[in-house]
């Protein structure tokens, strides 16, 4: 069956978006999702996202990594599906939807999608890194000379190493230059560096504040595919009222052939 799709990107994290309100897309076909996401044999994307009906909210987001498997929350994908829902006429400029990690509020203002993330109850600090879950698991580590850093090799070593076992983790490397912060991410399920990771940016922003590198409750991050902003309120050992803010753009539409 031919499958109409839309391609979106949020700071270079790119997704195949499918309007699955009629439940026509086969949801357990790992091979098909992997094939569609393949950059040589398919459409090419870091992940695939289904927009589905929800009984009481605006819609449900169903997320698959490029390896074809359903996974935990995707922040950039969450921003892209809000823009997609607006393009489909499902919402106007604000919404509440359900994703794998629970409900998310979001709104679009000045062409930027503001996505509310789940509260983070704690951040674990180790000698050389921090770990937190922002809807997906994230390792955050400071490095020097981020531009020259081998994110794919070092990220894979940590992702598959003893620290995270079979479940693995996304791995973020961060560098501070003066008041500004840059980050690069090795993504679990893509098994490569991506140009941006929304839950990763959220994790890095909170880790930066937690370590006292900034007192501000608003952190701007340079990612390989652009810029993201994260705002938050400290709350006990964690953070509440967390928003991931950035652009989410349609790239093209097409039809996946029979
Ligand atoms: N690109 C995402 C993260 C998607 C989930 C991740 N690959 C995982 O499996 O943990 C984002 O923008 O948050």
Automatic annotation (TrEMBL):
Location within or outside the cell: Cytoplasm
SUPFAM superfamilies for this protein: Diaminopimelate epimerase-like
Record InterPro entries: DAP_epimerase_AS, DAP_epimerase_DapF
Gene3D superfamilies, A to Z: Diaminopimelate Epimerase, Chain A, domain 1
Site for Could be important to modulate the pK values of the two catalytic cysteine residues, residues: 138, 187
Transmembrane stretches, start-end: none
Superkingdom per UniProt: Bacteria
Family, as annotated: Belongs to the diaminopimelate epimerase family.
Protein's name according to its UniProt entry: Diaminopimelate epimerase
Biological source species: Leeuwenhoekiella parthenopeia
Gene: dapF
